[in-house]
Amino acid sequence: MVEAGFTRHKNAVNVLFKNVADFAVASIAFFLVGYAFMMGDDWKGIIGTSGFALLGDYYDVQEILIWFFMLVFAGTAATIVSGAIAERPKFIGYLLGSIVVSAIIYPIYGHWIWGSGWLAEHPFLKKLAGGYGALDFAGSGAVHALGGYVALAALLVLGPRIGRYDEKGNPRPIPGHSMTLAALGTFILWFCWFGFNAGSTLSAHELRVSIIAANTNLAAASGALTAMVITWLKLGKPELGLTLNGALGGLVAITAPCAWVAPWAAIIIGTVAGFIVTYGYWWLERRGIDDAVGAVPVHGFCGTWGLIALGIFADGTYGVYTTEPPLVTGLLYGNPGFLAVQLISAVVNFAWAFGTGYIVYMAIDKLVGGLRVSPKEETIGLDVAEHMAVAYPYFVQTEVTPSPTIIKEERRQWIGQIKYMIINSSG
Length: 427
Hints:
The protein contains 16 helices and two strands. A two-stranded antiparallel ribbon has the order 1-2. Helices cover 66% and strands 1% of the residues. The protein is mainly alpha-helical.
């Protein structure tokens, strides 16, 4: 809903299709190889080597429980890319990218942080932090930053949408077709994040759930309010789109530290995320990076902030995914070593996600004869060009307060869609 609302009506079917397909391909890819790479028997802290297709000892109720939970995270990491690069990629190229994210990119970094890999278990890092390695409670880095930086790589391969910049390189807005859908999607995500974060305790009997849920909500609220105030001061009016992303940025940022910080710290974390979302989006825009929904600042930048915030605000009231010692403390509580470990994790996260993402999408670009659709297909819209469908067949769409030129362009696009469907129809 968020991605569809923030993009144009002529690409709504394509956005919806990608999100459905993401979870379908992630389910199979993570079943066949992803879970083995992530949670299988450790090989020198780098990769798992058992559990392919959940065979052998992995055909077990507890293993499949963990597989299913981690699968949803895999699907999330993959679909972050969808919104960022919306309105441009070929459907087949996009699906190939999702397969690689679900099968390789997410599972291998996930192994390093959650599967007894080197970031969590290396003796040097554990000594530096004071008895534990890098931590990430529910995926600020392993899910969100990873997906955000893969998306950044894909954006650099694809380039900006037609019309996003004028002839002088100045950015021009491309409004989404439904802020109603965008707001609805944000509310759904906000609500479901309580499962995302609190559910990562893997037990509703774990009383830390109350603190996790409270922190999750407070970070989202402060992120939304911060983005609202920033846009109000900068633009003269409060802007809804960035306010919605401010809430999502707060949710992303609190995802790593949610179990280890106090509620007052959650508000600070969400407030900083609100700044990161707004200024991060404008920073990318000025550099010609056309992120259609703001996924890179929301997931990438705020995900990194979440890893760092954990190293700053962890207060020693919770252990390593358990109430048992050693209790986790950060910079403000006398443990600068843990902050250093979290910074190492953040750098590794960016290097792995962006580096592999760029290689993968460059390879796909060669494999499918260009990752991006043709200019004609992009102008007509991916709904028709890629799926021979339209999301709103009974409504004529125009821009707000349209000029005669805009109305003429809208009509031209609709006529082009009809012609395209007729020419390519087999009936």
